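User: Sequence recovery, please. Input:
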């Protein structure tokens, strides 16, 4: 080698060495199709070292691609289905009278779990289900709308409690969420974000669904695609979210399969059904009504469901049907009008359930058509809580009324029967139906102390792995066990670190041990579980259950009067579940020491899981100041069209003085359209021009629409209109009456006084819109959406006075309600 060759050889070696590049070619470059399952508890997996060979010229170099991260070979797709507001006896797979052939089919192909449990309320169950941790540990001791500033109740699921989907995604899964998301803090549930707690921030590649507790299936005002609000129902008569959501899921599965058939997916499918509003299509209502499933009434239906459950073996042979509660009317004591109304209510709900089962059936059929069914793990949790009694004792055509403390009389609802279930109603059935559909268990949604609130059926199907087709499992489990089961089935370890954040351990345990027929009767891997919602609480331990007795009825809502001292104000019961699986024989008086030990165990679990401080009053959470862009502000300004804002980021005009001012220009030929609105057909308000006339309308629960309107249309040019509300100087802190004045260019044109106003909240699934209405109109007689403003908008201003709902005023209300209860 001459000096020139030696120089370049030495320089090349120094250059490559300086950059850490290999000096010799490997035997073989890394394939572009290489994959790896890292089997790591630390996520995401770091990029591995480059294994190729780099020379100064590409032609002399060898490439090597980082291997694609994939789950273990043969890992299944996962379809996790969660039905809303459905009791243990609400479907035919677990003895109910409503036909659910898709669920029945999956139950015959897989396993039915008869002792799965939820938390008794929407947001808490969903948080627990998707994280594998107890609901208070992840900030959801209450629904998102009821968040308070305590770790167990702030509705903030921190990065230390990552969703299972995030870890599956970082192990190579495609992840998607369809349907209800009730786990975004309300002050973040807007198109402006932040999106940390939206599905796309929690590990889901794709989201199509609604953010909030429920929504109209005909005109969902809170529907998102990823983080963008969408309104696909406009100009589409008959459009229904239940079908549209199934279409979206089918398209997603089909596209994933066609694009990358080797990549498994995880889908969380959470329809709004069967939560109110009950919005099936007319064809399903007609089909179910023609079957006359409920004609015998709620008492006879409960007995029929109980008999079915015994025959199916989904309840123990020694189970007893609890006596019908004295505080509920019996069917035989009702008059003809009451029966007619209540039958229509339950037929519409049942149609909603059957319709939903059918739409999920289309997804299952897609899996079969694409050859994906055998290697798809389907876990169908049949209720996020027990049946809802939030329809009040007689039912309601407008669920918003319940949360504002108003109950409809039967006479008011009879004319609405033909429209029940249509977009002209936001309906819910009478509370006794909830007890019947929770058969054989006592109580309902919100009641975490009894299985009527917490026990749900679950079906698990995976033909490639689960061979005991039609098997029944009676092990005691909880929704926190679902994520550990999925990871165990897939073969992915629980992560200890996600995105650089140390993870809290799961509270759940895997249920895979129970899949094989030889372990059908194996002891449950879960021996202890606490429960708590709104002061109703219980502790399960090794076959025993200690629980409180509800102090108020769920249908009382804000009118309920729970004890102020929640910890000591509830009475307790004790049950031996082996001998008494339906909680009918209270042993508290016979075994006080056992009860005391279980109460102490509950407190240990409460402290460990951030359950304290306890609260049983819905009114007590009304004064909570929550974070977000609306917090602490008394002035809001909008200078352009601004649609689809969720209620918690909007100015709150309830229970306070306020002035709304609109500055704009009317063009030649006049102007019409919405200036600002919140809510819609079932409650809300709107400031708009109708036939050129300035108009302010309050929609009070679709019962009254007080209107302030100018007699004359506006002429072309610049104008300022204002609506000022002044509450009465004394009165209740919520719903207080007052006087409103509409002014045009500084002069009053309409003044009206009201004896009361909306007390708690406007329709939550409708948005706050500036310059347009993207939901439903506050008055169908005045306009139809979107009704955009046709003038030139300069500015909308809200000036808010002090709230009437001071902590002192609300505390006084709570204490007064408690005194009435004690009397």
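Assistant: Recovered sequence (823 residues):
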């Amino acid at each position: 080698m001459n000096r020139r060759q030696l120089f370049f050889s030495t320089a090349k070696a120094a250059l490559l060495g300086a950059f850490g590049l290999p000096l010799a070619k490997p035997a073989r470059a890394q394939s572009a199709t290489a994959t790896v399952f890292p089997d790591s508890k630390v996520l995401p997996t770091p990029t591995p070292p480059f294994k190729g060979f780099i020379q100064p010229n590409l032609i002399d170099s060898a490439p090597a691609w980082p291997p694609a991260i994939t789950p273990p070979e043969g890992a299944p797709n996962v379809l996790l289905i969660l039905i809303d507001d459905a009791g243990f006896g609400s479907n035919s797979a677990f003895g109910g009278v409503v036909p659910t052939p898709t669920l029945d089919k999956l139950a015959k192909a897989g396993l039915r779990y008869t002792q799965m449990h939820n938390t008794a309320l929407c947001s808490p169950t969903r948080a627990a289900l998707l994280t594998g941790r107890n609901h208070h540990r992840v900030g959801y001791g209450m629904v998102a709308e009821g968040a308070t500033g305590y770790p167990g109740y702030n509705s903030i699921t921190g990065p230390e409690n990552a969703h299972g989907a995030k870890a599956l995604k970082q192990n190579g899964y495609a992840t998607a969420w369809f349907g209800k998301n009730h786990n975004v803090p309300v002050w973040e549930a807007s198109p402006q974000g932040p999106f940390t707690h939206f599905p796309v921030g929690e590990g889901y590649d794709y989201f199509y669904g609604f953010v909030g507790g429920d929504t109209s299936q005909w005109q969902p005002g809170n529907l998102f695609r990823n983080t963008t609000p969408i309104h696909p129902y406009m100009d589409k008569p008959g459009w229904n979210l239940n079908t549209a959501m199934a279409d979206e899921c089918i398209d997603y599965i089909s596209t994933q399969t066609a694009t990358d058939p080797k990549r498994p997916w995880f889908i969380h499918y959470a329809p709004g059904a069967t939560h109110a509003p009950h919005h099936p299509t007319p064809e399903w209502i007609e089909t179910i009504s023609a079957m006359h499933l409920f004609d015998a009434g709620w008492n006879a239906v409960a007995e029929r469901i109980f008999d079915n459950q015994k025959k199916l073996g989904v309840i123990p042979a020694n189970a007893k049907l609890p006596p019908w509660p004295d505080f509920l009317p019996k069917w035989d004591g009702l008059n003809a009008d009451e029966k007619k109304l209540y039958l229509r209510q339950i037929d519409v709900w049942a149609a909603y359930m059957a319709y939903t089962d059918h739409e999920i059936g289309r997804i299952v059929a897609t899996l079969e058509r694409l050859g994906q069914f055998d290697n798809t793990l389907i876990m169908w949790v049949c209720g996020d809580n027990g049946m809802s009694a939030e329809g009040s004792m007689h039912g309601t055509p407008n669920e918003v009324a319940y949360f504002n403390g108003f109950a409809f009389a039967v006479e008011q609802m009879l004319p609405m029967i033909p429209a029940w279930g249509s977009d002209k109603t936001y309906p819910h059935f009478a509370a006794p139906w909830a007890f019947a559909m929770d058969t054989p268990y006592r109580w309902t949604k919100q009641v975490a102390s009894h299985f009527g609130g917490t026990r749900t059926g679950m079906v698990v199907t995976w033909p490639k792995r689960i061979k005991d087709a039609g098997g029944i499992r009676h092990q005691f489990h909880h929704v926190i066990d679902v994520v550990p089961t999925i990871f165990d089935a897939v073969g992915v370890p629980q992560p200890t670190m996600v995105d650089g954040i140390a993870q809290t351990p799961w509270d759940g345990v895997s249920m895979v041990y129970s899949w094989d027929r030889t372990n059908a009767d194996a002891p449950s891997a879960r021996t202890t579980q606490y429960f708590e919602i709104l002061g109703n609480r219980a502790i399960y331990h090794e076959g025993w259950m200690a629980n409180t007795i509800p102090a108020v009825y769920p249908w009382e809502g804000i009118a309920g009067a729970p004890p102020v001292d929640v910890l000591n104000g509830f009475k307790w019961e004790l049950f031996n579940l082996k001998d008494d699986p339906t909680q009918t024989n209270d042993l508290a008086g016979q075994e006080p020491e056992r009860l005391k030990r279980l109460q102490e165990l509950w407190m240990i679990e409460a402290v460990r899981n951030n359950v304290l401080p306890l609260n049983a009053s819905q009114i007590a959470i009304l004064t909570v100041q929550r974070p977000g862009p609306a917090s602490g502000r008394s002035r809001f300004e909008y200078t352009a069209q601004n649609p689809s804002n969720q209620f918690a980021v909007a100015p709150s005009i309830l229970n306070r003085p306020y002035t709304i001012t609109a500055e704009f220009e009317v063009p030649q030929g006049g102007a019409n359209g919405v200036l600002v609105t919140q809510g819609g057909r079932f409650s809300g308000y709107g400031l708009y021009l109708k036939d050129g006339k300035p108009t302010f309308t309050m929609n009070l629960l679709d019962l009254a629409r007080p209107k302030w309107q100018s007699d004359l249309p506006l002429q072309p040019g610049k104008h300022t209109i204002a609506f000022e509300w002044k509450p009465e100087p004394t009165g209740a802190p919520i719903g207080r009456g007052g006087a409103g004045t509409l002014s045009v260019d500084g002069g009053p044109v309409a003044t009206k006084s009201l004896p009361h106003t909306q007390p708690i909240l406007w329709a939550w699934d409708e948005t706050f819109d500036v310059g347009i209405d993207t939901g439903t109109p506050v008055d169908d007689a005045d306009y139809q959406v979107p009704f955009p403003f046709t003038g030139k908008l300069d500015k909308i201003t809200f000036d808010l006075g002090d709230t009437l709902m001071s902590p002192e005023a609300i505390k006084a209300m709570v204490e007064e309600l408690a005194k009435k209860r004690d009397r």
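Residues 1-27 have pLDDT under 50 and may be disordered.
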